[in-house]
Design goal:
By secondary structure, this protein is mainly alpha-helical. The chain has one domain. The chain is about 65% helix and about 0% strand.
């Protein structure tokens, strides 16, 4: 059960956070587990999401990540930024669903960054976070 707790918390955290203006959950369909382009083009995001991701990229680029303690601190900071991204989510429709696909991959990696004490595993989580941000850039504007 402990292994599944982060995923359960992720679902409980994400699902109530993104609502439309009427307060309804804004999913049009269940997202797949892989990112897809919007008819060959990048998905448009709202200002809030763009600014949040710019801040995440900046923190990833500027904060030290030489030791597990550095990566833990970075992961904790990223979690705070992701909380703000999710709580202020205003996106709807397919672009929103694709954002959830990305977050479903990114949040567990950030969680590993925040708690991993093994040097190699912490560095691997940091690398994965960077790779996922590059993947985000291929699918979202």
């Amino acid at each position: 059960m402990r292994r599944f707790l982060p995923l359960l918390l992720l679902g409980a955290f994400l699902l109530p956070a993104c609502h439309d203006s009427a307060g309804n959950h804004a999913h049009n369909a269940a997202p797949s587990d892989r990112l897809e382009l919007n008819a060959g083009k990048k998905w448009q995001t709202d200002d809030h999401t763009r600014e949040a991701l710019q801040g995440i990229r900046k923190v990833m680029a500027e904060r030290p990540a030489a030791t597990p303690a550095d990566i833990n601190a970075l992961g904790s900071h990223l979690k705070t930024r992701l909380d703000a991204l999710i709580s202020g989510c205003t996106m709807t429709g397919p672009a929103h669903d694709q954002l959830h696909v990305f977050l479903g991959k990114f949040l567990p990696v950030v969680d590993r960054m925040a708690r991993e004490t093994d040097t190699e595993k912490a560095k691997q989580a940091h690398r994965e976070a960077g790779e996922l941000l590059a993947e985000y850039d291929r699918y979202f504007e």
